[in-house]
Amino acid sequence: MGSVDWAGEWLSSLIWIAVTSVATVVVVAIVGLLLARFTTWGRQVRRLVGPWLHPRGDEGWRPLLFVLALLVLVVVAVRLNVLLSYNSNGLYTALQDLDAGAFWSAVGVFAVLATLYVTEVLVAYYVGQAFVIRLREWLNERLLGDWLGGRAYHRSRFAPQQVDNPDQRIQEDITAFAGTSHDLSVGPSGAVNAVLSVVSFTYVLWLLSGPLSIAGVEIPRAMTFLAFLYVIVVTVIAFRIGRPLIRLNFLNEGLSATYRYGLVRVRDNAENIAFLRGEPLEKRTLDSRFAAVIANYWRIVRRNLRFQGFNLVATQISVVFPIVIQAPRFFAQTITLGDVQQTRARSGRCTTGCRSSGTPTTSSPPTGRCSTVSPGCSTRTPTRAGSPRSTCPTARTA
Question: Which GO terms describe its cellular component (predicted)?
């Protein structure tokens, strides 16, 4: 398994990257359309960023080119990780065989792969941050225009359903939405990377796996099946433990914003408060709001203690689990030390990928909060000139 024809592998990898990139773009487009059509979250995202991604929007094709570049970079990163796993296998196998020539050859290949990997990470970071900045600029321009247009900032004060702290949402939630959306989708630990990693490394793990007898029953390719069984069990438990953190963190942001607004209110009404000697009343109000923030934060700490504790235990088990499974085959000399090392690394990668795509994060993109800043906005229809025109009633956009 550790023997790789590196002379021909570079061309094979380029072909793999090209084919996989096309397939990834098609799958992501289909999944995105299905989410936008059949899920509430998808419809909120479409309402917020659909006009930005539209080729006839203000930005033209640039946002779609950003997405395309990020998807290709994710594919390149996954392929480099696969190649690094083969290189690591060859390195450890050369050490086991006391083969100095093979060892130094593997070191040379590693130098090339490491250079490519570092370059890919830096390029992906720059492109990703440029994507986030452009999205923040566009969202800020749109929501700020909706909030100020038609004096919606004033009319919203008399609306039946008040939107709390729209000014702070424009500043904070746009930043959170842009950054989190990138991280959870096309970021280094995002859903696309996780799915591609699981698919790619499952194939590698399948080749490394062998039969294992449990209670007299022989399981073919046992390492693959046991790894995924472990992932499923761990993911289900982690999901049940970590799911409340989404609600608690959402509540924390709202309570913190309310407390900040109370502080700003004191500053804005300083003359009236001083004239009426209202300091004790304002102090009690601020104390009650801050107490709510602290009480909720303690709930977050207690829940995080359970969530992080379980994750640490699961991670430590996953380090030794593949080695224990492969140890009998290694002692029987049917696999090499490099195979064991590659199995451990790839099993951990599959575990991380599955849990990244299946376990709830402790926070989520504030699509609902951003959309309520402009609740009347549907998708903006393009004008004949190609620029988007708002179809939302400005009296409700605060």
Answer: plasma membrane
pLDDT at 308: 92
The percent of the chain in helix, strand and coil, each rounded to the nearest 5, is 80, 5, 20
pTM above 0.90, yes or no: no
Q: Taking the CA atoms of 191, 121, 304 and 165 in sequence, report the sign of the dihedral they define.
A: negative
Residue 107 has pLDDT above 50, yes or no: yes
What is the arithmetic mean of pLDDT over 308-319?
89
Beta strand 388-389 with 381-382 is: antiparallel
Where do the structural domains in the chain lie, given as residue ranges?
Answer: 1-188, 212-356
Say if CB 248 and CB 303 are below 8 A apart: yes
For 137-184, give the DSSP string: HHHHHHHHHHHHGGGHHHHGGGSSSPPS-HHHHHHHHHHHHHHHHHHH
Mean pLDDT for the stretch of residues 21-40? 93
Q: What is the H or E stretch that residue 382 is in?
A: strand 381-382
Residue 178: per-residue pLDDT: 87
Position 170 confidence tier, pLDDT thresholds 50, 70, 90:
confident
Alpha-carbon distance of 153 to 365, in angstroms, equals 24
What's the start-to-end Cα distance of the chain, in Å?
61
Say what the pLDDT of residue 391 is.
34
Condensed to tens digits (0 to 9), the pLDDT of residues 245-297 reads 989 998 998 898 889 889 988 988 988 888 888 889 999 999 999 999 999 99
Rounded to whole angstroms, the Cα distance separating 123 from 157 reads: 46
Task: List CB contacts of 367: < 8 A, sequence separation 6 or more.
Answer: 41, 44, 45, 48, 177
Strand 217-219 vs strand 212-214: parallel, antiparallel, or unpaired? antiparallel
Coil, strand or helix: which one is 388?
strand
Q: Is 161 exposed, middle or buried (0-12, 13-18, 19+ CB in 10 A)?
A: exposed
Q: Which residues pair with 219 in a beta bridge?
A: 212
Q: What mean pLDDT is reported for the chain?
A: 83
| Burial status of residue 136 (CB atoms within 10 A of its CB: 0-12, 13-18, 19 or more) | middle
